[in-house]
Design brief:
Layout: H1 22-28, H2 30-35, H3 51-62, E1 65-71, H4 74-88, E2 94-98, H5 103-112, E3 115-119, E4 123-124, E5 129-130, H6 135-147, E6 152-158, E7 165-166, H7 169-179, E8 183-186, E9 210-213, H8 215-218, E10 226-231, H9 236-250, H10 257-272, H11 276-293, E11 311-312, E12 316-320, H12 328-339, E13 345-346, E14 350-354, H13 363-377, H14 401-405, E15 409-413, E16 426-429, E17 434-436, H15 444-455, E18 460-462, E19 471-475
Parallel strand pairs: 2-3, 2-6, 6-8, 8-9
Antiparallel strand pairs: 1-10, 4-5, 7-11, 9-10, 12-14, 13-14, 15-19, 16-17, 16-18
Helix pairs in contact: 3-10, 4-5, 4-9, 6-7, 12-13
Length: 478
């Protein structure tokens, strides 16, 4: 028998729309207010056999994992958990990581005091887009790290990329298993993988030991909700308690019941697969329409040119918009402002449209909007891409990232920063790969590259103190 509870606890709205909470109910709905309950409620999240525990078990079964944790601080929390678990392992503080890793994993490297060795992903120089790494690269870099006397505690890769490029996780996992090193896969953009025959397989079934899953992105849960999966592998027993400790360190003590519940619903929806075939067909038809038109090349059509890419995500369409004469950032902005068409990602040369599995959005509307922008601004292609110089090699890592990040720093002119140690992370767009990380030496080539990108009409430098990169922050002790 359903009862209306009397809530004499947080949250202050009391799980009802009465009194001042009517405004909240008008905003989010009475059902959302009623479901927004606190932690430690009998029959919901208390005890080892609680509905919450069972929901996480079902998620682990769905993704073929040993264990799954529901997260309310996004995949960023999962990345930090993974890094902290590696740092807590006591078997080598070095981590071999893809250079284009998400900043939240770099945060974890700082917190856990890890020592990073980097692998450069392949780069589509024509569009300024980075992709992934190969099994051969991983094997080579593992050998180099060990030759340098480092005991590698984990390998970290990204698959799929923002643009849907999928790495050969199975081959990479064979390399890491042979080397006795756990493999972490940032699969944030592939939460739906493995739930339809047209989707690439989930990394949890391809040998990954830890998988980051940003379930809200294309898995269907509420924004900010995510999961981290512990794979069924040789490191599972060791990592289970380490990830649990990292979870306690990073998870909110006031978890949102709405976010947690949405993760369980997303799992059930993915397993059901309702409408997935129709979505896949609709996106495929839209891609073919763009190909037939010819003005808006599909970025993933060139994936065959890169040895690190073995598949692509059928639920996103990466569109080269240089023929409009506008940057991808400008196209994305105009699509929203003028046509109420909102896209997830933009780069200098492209935009990316995501379609959630089972959804059938109005893709004709997107095509018509692109057609209008091309008619208004297009014809000559995007100017300025050729002004971006080649990527410089990163400077030597002279100080552990954590020591540099928390060290005493000073601000100097860019030219005076050459040869000094950076305390910041700087990434030039395009292509968005970090050029300098805390603890690395700032080289002359890097300064020239960053300033050239900043001066180009289509470039900017994330993390810079000023738009022109006239000044940089360096470690005062160096």
């Amino acid at each position: 028998m359903q009862r209306q509870p009397t809530m004499l606890m947080v949250p202050g709205h009391g799980a009802t729309a009465a009194g001042p909470s009517r405004r909240l109910a008008e905003f989010a709905g009475e059902r959302a207010v009623a479901m927004d309950i606190p932690r430690l409620i009998e029959g919901i999240d208390v005890g080892p056999r609680s509905p919450l525990a069972r929901a996480q078990e079902l998620a682990a079964e769905a993704w073929s994992a040993r264990s799954t944790w529901f997260l309310t601080n996004g995949a960023s929390q999962a990345n930090r958990m993974a890094a902290i678990a590696v740092g807590s392992r006591g078997r080598g503080s070095a981590v071999l990581m893809q250079r284009s890793a998400h900043s939240s994993f770099t945060d974890g490297v700082l917190v856990a005091d890890l020592f990073p060795f980097f692998m450069m992903p392949s780069v589509d120089t024509a569009r300024g887009i980075h992709h992934g790494v190969t099994a051969a690269q991983v094997e080579e870099h593992l050998a180099e790290a060990r030759a340098a006397g480092e005991d590698v505690g984990a390998v970290y890769i990204v698959s799929p990329s923002y643009f849907g490029a999928v790495a050969d996780v199975a081959a990479i996992s064979r390399v890491t298993r042979a080397a006795g090193v756990p493999l972490i896969v940032d699969g944030a953009w592939g939460a739906h993988f493995g739930f339809h025959e047209s989707f690439p397989e989930s990394p949890t079934r391809l040998g990954a030991d830890i998988v980051i899953s940003s379930t809200h992105k294309l898995g269907g849960s509420f924004t900010q909700s995510a999961m981290i999966h512990l794979g069924e592998g040789p490191f599972a027993d060791e990592f289970a308690p380490l990830l649990e400790r990292a979870f306690m360190l990073t998870q909110s003590t006031s978890e949102s019941a709405l976010l947690l519940g949405s993760l369980d619903i997303a799992r059930a929806t993915l397993e059901d697969g309702e409408g997935f075939a129709e979505s896949v067909a609709a996106v495929a038809a839209f891609r073919e329409r763009l190909r037939q038109d010819g003005r808006f090349p599909i970025v993933s059509d060139s994936f065959g040119e890169f040895s690190d890419i073995v598949a692509d995500d059928p639920m996103r369409v990466s569109i080269d918009v240089t023929s409009t004469g506008l940057t991808g950032h400008a196209v994305r902005s105009l699509l929203g402002e003028r046509f109420a068409v909102y896209l997830e990602i933009a780069t200098v040369s492209a935009v990316v449209a995501f379609v959630g599995p089972g959804k059938l959005p109005d893709l004709d509307r997107l095509f018509a909007a692109l057609d209008t922008l091309h008619a208004e601004h297009g014809g000559g292609g995007l100017m300025g891409l050729d002004a971006i110089p080649p990527l410089p090699r990163p400077g030597a890592l002279r100080v552990r990232p954590r020591e540099a990040y928390f060290g005493t720093h000073r601000t100097v002119d860019a030219q005076d920063a050459i040869g000094r140690v950076s305390v910041d992370a700087l990434s030039a767009y395009p292509p968005g790969i970090p050029n300098v990380l805390p603890g690395e030496e700032i080289t002359r080539e890097t300064v020239e590259f960053l300033r050239a990108v900043a001066a180009a009409p289509i470039g900017y430098v994330r993390g810079a103190l000023d738009p022109a990169v006239a000044q940089l922050r360096v470690l005062a002790a160096e």
